[in-house]
Automatic annotation (TrEMBL):
<feature type="active site" description="Proton donor">
    <location>
        <position position="341"/>
    </location>
</feature>
<feature type="binding site">
    <location>
        <position position="230"/>
    </location>
    <ligand>
        <name>pyridoxal 5'-phosphate</name>
    </ligand>
</feature>
<feature type="binding site">
    <location>
        <position position="275"/>
    </location>
    <ligand>
        <name>substrate</name>
    </ligand>
</feature>
<protein>
    <recommendedName>
        <fullName>Diaminopimelate decarboxylase</fullName>
        <ecNumber>4.1.1.20</ecNumber>
    </recommendedName>
</protein>
<keyword id="KW-0456">Lyase</keyword>
<feature type="domain" description="Orn/DAP/Arg decarboxylase 2 N-terminal">
    <location>
        <begin position="31"/>
        <end position="278"/>
    </location>
</feature>
<feature type="binding site">
    <location>
        <position position="310"/>
    </location>
    <ligand>
        <name>substrate</name>
    </ligand>
</feature>
<feature type="modified residue" description="N6-(pyridoxal phosphate)lysine">
    <location>
        <position position="56"/>
    </location>
</feature>
<dbReference type="GO" id="GO:0009089">
    <property type="term" value="P:lysine biosynthetic process via diaminopimelate"/>
</dbReference>
<comment type="function">
    <text>Specifically catalyzes the decarboxylation of meso-diaminopimelate (meso-DAP) to L-lysine.</text>
</comment>
<keyword id="KW-0210">Decarboxylase</keyword>
<feature type="binding site">
    <location>
        <begin position="272"/>
        <end position="275"/>
    </location>
    <ligand>
        <name>pyridoxal 5'-phosphate</name>
    </ligand>
</feature>
<comment type="subunit">
    <text>Homodimer.</text>
</comment>
<dbReference type="Pfam" id="PF02784">
    <property type="entry name" value="Orn_Arg_deC_N"/>
</dbReference>
<dbReference type="GO" id="GO:0008836">
    <property type="term" value="F:diaminopimelate decarboxylase activity"/>
</dbReference>
<comment type="similarity">
    <text>Belongs to the Orn/Lys/Arg decarboxylase class-II family. LysA subfamily.</text>
</comment>
<dbReference type="GO" id="GO:0030170">
    <property type="term" value="F:pyridoxal phosphate binding"/>
</dbReference>
Length: 421
């Protein structure tokens, strides 16, 4: 099997560990920037093209500051994510709120920041109007139902909780137009971690069709089409990344025919990609604590599913490199485990690796999206630090590790003294 490349050497990591003990996440700034530029370049034909980083993938203000400098916006879906955008200094159309089951206070903060609001349901039009007032610009999320096959993680669109039906969205534009909303957008997202490039071209086609229909039936001219996220990454060494040039060329062809051809240009294209932006450029670095041999062979790590949930949650594959043993034969079979009292707390099951020992350093690949972010504190486990590997090789801590005091921060031990039992 092909080995995945690392942006650092064993010596470098050993040096980092002297001041930043394992486990930690480390992000590769250079690769994130290059990837961001490639993404924007691929769609440079589309005037006004913008990618809004789905911040849930890696909600760190340092990463957001880097991406913002590269020209990215931010896609939020909670009050904390909006607040993060605010604290990074983002305002107005740099921010999209694509939420669901949204509370009024989220709409309020989005409105205060001048963010683009992307509604998830027809009932939210009246809700937003009542609690916050309708802004000049509104987008709505389309659920194409049985028009489109979903993929494994999101499931069939008809079963998904997201978005307006076809009928509802047409009605939505009529209502918003009657209420003097001035600028309109449309959004859909029906896949997650999808590697088939044609999938995104088909999604654009569905949206373009709807844009034509909305124009005919309501007279509304839609100004931006948000293709959502869902661009997959090659977790397995033999997989290939989505070819964005191919996706872009396919969409451009449809744009010429359907949008330009029907007098509906200009239409700005937007994405809310998360995984594909930082996923491959973040690594979980963890040391072997114990080797255990029972009915199977276990490598017990100092990281656990708190640091990376995807293998436990989805059975997802994450490639593992044992530092310094890249060229050794894969002679041993291990379950690579954490210390949580849950048997699914495993980074890999029956993984062939070189023979490993206590204190060996493992690097778990593709942990840069939905990695640190997804962790919880179950079993009193604490979340690890995040480090940034800068282009000049410097290491910047961008989030400290949690302490036991953080874990207790929501408890009142002073009050406990007066609590008689
Ligand atoms: C999760 C999510 C995204 C990003 O998905 P990725 O798979 O990380 O690209 C974008 N938009 C919405 C509404 C989401 O929920």
């Amino acid at each position: 099997m092909a080995e995945k490349k690392l942006p650092f050497s064993k010596e470098q990591i050993e040096k980092i560990i002297e001041t930043h003990p394992t486990p930690f996440h480390i992000y590769d700034e250079k690769a994130i920037r290059e990837n961001a530029r490639n993404f924007l370049n691929a769609f440079s034909w589309n005037e006004g093209f913008k990618e809004y980083f789905a911040i849930k993938a890696a909600p760190n203000p340092y990463l957001m500051k880097i991406l913002r400098e590269e020209g990215f916006g931010i896609d939020c879906s909670s009050i904390a994510e909006l607040e993060l955008a605010k604290r990074v200094g983002m305002r107005g159309e740099e921010i999209i709120l694509t939420s669901n089951d949204t509370p009024a206070y989220e709409f309020q903060l989005a409105s205060d920041l001048g963010a683009i609001i992307n509604l998830d349901d027809i009932s939210h039009i009246a809700f937003l109007e009542k609690h916050v007032g309708l802004p000049d610009t509104i987008s709505m999320r389309y659920n194409p139902g049985d028009l489109k096959q979903g993929n494994l993680i999101i499931g069939h669109p008809e079963d998904a909780k997201y978005g307006f039906t076809h009928e509802q969205i047409i009605e939505g534009y009529k209502i918003l137009k009657s209420k003097a909303v001035k600028h309109f957008g449309i959004h859909t997202m029906v896949a997650s971690n999808e590697l088939d490039p044609d999938y995104f071209i088909e999604t654009a086609e569905i949206l373009f069709k709807l844009i034509i229909e909305v124009s005919e039936k309501t007279g509304v001219k839609i100004e931006f089409a948000n293709l959502g996220g869902g661009i997959g990454i090659p977790y397995k060494p033999e997989q290939k990344p989505v070819n964005l040039e191919y996706v872009s060329a396919g969409i451009q062809k449809l744009y010429q025919k359907m949008i330009v051809g029907n007098g509906l240009a200009p239409l700005k294209l937007l994405f809310e990609s998360g995984r594909a932006i930082t996923g491959p450029y973040g690594y979980l670095v963890t040391k072997v604590r114990h080797i255990k041999k029972t009915y199977k062979q276990f490598a017990g790590m100092d990281a656990c599913m708190v640091n990376l949930m995807r293998p436990a949650m989805y059975g997802a594959y994450h490639h593992i490199t044992v530092l310094g043993k890249e060229n050794e034969a894969l002679t041993e079979k291990y379950d690579v485990t954490g210390s949580l009292c849950e048997n699914n707390d495993k980074f890999a099951i029956d993984r062939m690796l070189p023979k490993v020992e206590t204190d060996d350093i493992m690097v778990i690949h593709d942990a840069g999206a939905h990695g640190h972010a997804m962790g919880f504190n179950y079993n009193g486990k604490l979340k690890s630090a995040e480090l940034l590997l800068r282009e000049n090789g410097e290491i910047v801590p961008i989030r400290r590790a949690e302490t036991v005091e953080d874990y207790f921060a929501t408890l009142d031990f002073d009050g406990l003294k007066d609590f008689s039992v």
